[in-house]
């Protein structure tokens, strides 16, 4: 009788874990479908807007860079959808590492360009065409020739994984340097975002007081409000992943049923929602 109760309890526990995993897989599929559809539409519409404007300001060059980043990331989403729908990876180990690395490269590069936009607006920076092209080009060269090759050389290579599985590089966290790198990235993003949020809110408050009550009719207020939009995207899309990432690193050893791994994937999928920024930005331009 006692053994029977234990068996039933274990079966119930396994069924609950399975049901929870299926729900999280469904959430992942829905998030990626929304991001793929909305992100693709946003890239197309913003590309048309920029084509007609033909501006080469700091803002325009940065937006173009974001469009390219979003496009690369959107190309990787069908591979993720295939994996979560079929439950099996069919594209080889290198493609798995590439698709996994792209989402991180996209997240941190997008964050860097967001920071550049906010700082340029705060300091009212406007460079000549040659300077703007030079620094944007330097960022791309650094990413393409240094960061990406190094990441692909080491990411997901220190442990052995089954060929039918992908996006499960949690065992890399057994390496001390990986733990340190994750803590540093999380700390930098949180601190930079907190500082910029505080400064941006202060600037908006001062501008609002200066031009009240006709604040919407002033270019300076609208420009700072658009900068706040990029900070809000960072807070909504990037911050939850990094906060949870710290918790995940500290507790992944206890994650026997891989539930924390799936939650980590959901928060990672949330970071790709930043590709919807172009739709929001177009709506802001229209109004």
From TrEMBL:
Transmembrane feature ranges: 24-46, 58-81, 101-123, 135-155, 180-207, 228-247, 267-286
Molecular function, one GO term: oxysterol binding
Extract one GO cellular component term from the record: membrane
Residues in domain G-protein coupled receptors family 1 profile? 38-281
InterPro entries referenced in this protein's UniProt entry, alphabetically:
GP183-like (IPR047160), GPCR_Rhodpsn (IPR000276), GPCR_Rhodpsn_7TM (IPR017452)
Q: Name one Pfam family in it.
A: 7tm_1
For membrane topology, the record states: Multi-pass membrane protein
Write down the superkingdom of origin. Answer: Eukaryota
Where does it localize? Membrane
Q: Which UniProt keywords apply?
A: G-protein coupled receptor, Membrane, Receptor, Transducer, Transmembrane, Transmembrane helix
Q: Where does it mainly reside?
A: membrane
Q: What is this protein called?
A: G-protein coupled receptors family 1 profile domain-containing protein
> Which organism is this entry from?
Zosterops borbonicus
